[in-house]
Amino acid sequence: MRYPQGGGLTAERQQFREELRLKAAERFAESEASSVIAKDLRVSVRSVQRWRQMWDEGGPRALRSQGPASLPRLSEKQFAQLEAELAKGPAAHGWEDQRWTLSRVKTVIGRRFHLTYTVQGVRKLLVRNGWSCQVPARRAMERDDEAVAGWVKEVWPCAEDSRRPVEPGSSSRTKPDSP
């Protein structure tokens, strides 16, 4: 992800960017070229051109930060309720196995809160709140770990030694001892 919180800028970074835009606005009033402003502020010329257009239409006020592009649709209280629902497990919500998938979490959000999320939106929501993807190890239910450990100690070394010994020789089958 681009930003540390999984989306959006920190308050300090928003403030820094707003200050850059306002510095550019002061220079717009002096009719400086966009390329000169971009070089001095270490931003792209296209950004300065966009800022100039916004400044032309609404003045310096148009360059002020408008906050985050979007707010999370689930409040912290609702997310706590979602976590409680997830803690009950998939079986409590009608699924046979014990795996939470993004599409299942999406379904629970839709049923519980009457909100529609995309699968990627669910992933971002979970990551933003400290959840991570967990993939279960694929192992047979009947697996006997002690038998596997014994096989690795006793049988595998014998199977490894049964290979043909590596000796210098020829790669030719018709002349096995040719140089």
Quick gist of this model?
It is built from seven helices and no strands.
Could you explain how this protein is built, in words?
The protein is an all-alpha fold. Helices cover 52% and strands 0% of the residues. It is built from seven helices and no strands. Helix 1 packs antiparallel against helix 2, helix 1 packs across helix 3 and helix 2 crosses helix 3. The longest helix has 19 residues. The radius of gyration is 31 Å and the shape is flat. The N terminus is likely disordered.
Helical content stands at 40-55%
How would you state the average pLDDT, rounded?
A: 83
Structural class: mainly alpha
Radius of gyration: 31 Å
* Sheet with the most strands, sense and barrel status: none
Strand-and-helix sequence, N→C? HHHHHHH
- Give the overall shape, derived from the CA principal axes: flat
**Strand fraction band?**
under 5%
N→C terminal distance: 59 Å
Number of E strands: 0
Tally of alpha and pi helices = 7
Unreliable parts:
1-6
